[in-house]
């Protein structure tokens, strides 16, 4: 995407009254990089907050799986602070995501690419791009993905600038899939076991996986107080 193309794309991101829409932001990321779809995951204190936007069912599943399983390109890109590229989920050179990859392949995704969202020491999450066919990114696609990750970062900071302290801006919440109930459940388990919220989320994921249950179902039971962790054994 040449410089003039980026300018035209940014112009299309702006609505009639100059308001930036997160859904268009995700669509623009997929369009600019010639990918099948895109999603944006927000993270805070190493814990996923949820998905800001997705472009289709596959990208929505990719975001949901990363939150539920704690693995995937966005998680790694955030923690490693660098792009994480997997050109072929079906035949990877290194098996990185044993629970995540098969489900994405079944849904129609073959390649995934994660790019961290950051400005200086501020780390916001990651941009996820997927393609329905295997293959590496071209040099231009990689460069454009970096540009779009920076644009998403600036947009999130712009949205959040006027939000009350400790709250997510309303413009970011609109249309987002934010896992508030999971964070509430993590807080409950953290108090029960006297551990951090991040560690509590890991315990919840492990319980869901070990009992072959969706994470959403488990956290709903924790919040409803029908499921609790034992403070002494650390088990349910």
N-end to C-end Cα span: 52 Å
Give the biggest sheet.
Answer: 6 strands, antiparallel
Q: What order do the helices and strands follow? A: HHEEHHEHEEHHEHHH
Given the C-alpha coordinates, what overall shape results?
globular
What is the CATH superfamily label of the largest domain?
GAF domain
The strand count comes to 6
Q: What is the typical, i.e. mean, pLDDT?
A: 82
Give the amount of beta strand, in percent: 15-25%
Q: How many separate domains?
A: 2
How large is the radius of gyration? 18 Å
The first-level CATH class of the largest domain is given as Alpha Beta
Q: Provide the low-confidence segments as ranges.
A: 14-18
Provide the structure class.
alpha+beta
CATH T-level topology of the largest domain = Beta-Lactamase
Strands side by side in the biggest sheet: 3-4-5-1-2-6
Helical content stands at 40-55%
Any guess at the CATH architecture of the largest domain?
2-Layer Sandwich
Structure description:
The chain has 236 residues and is an alpha+beta fold. It has 2 domains: 3-178, Beta-Lactamase (2-Layer Sandwich); 180-223. It has helices spanning 3-13, 22-33, 57-69, 73-80, 100-107, 139-160, 170-173, 180-193, 197-210, 215-223, and strands spanning 37-44, 47-54, 84-86, 111-119, 122-131, 177-178. Strands 3-4-5-1-2-6 form a 6-stranded antiparallel beta sheet, with helices on both faces. Helix 2 (22-33) runs antiparallel to helix 6 and helix 9 crosses helix 10 (215-223). The longest helix is centred in the middle third of the chain and has 22 residues, at 139-160. The N and C termini lie far apart (52 Å).
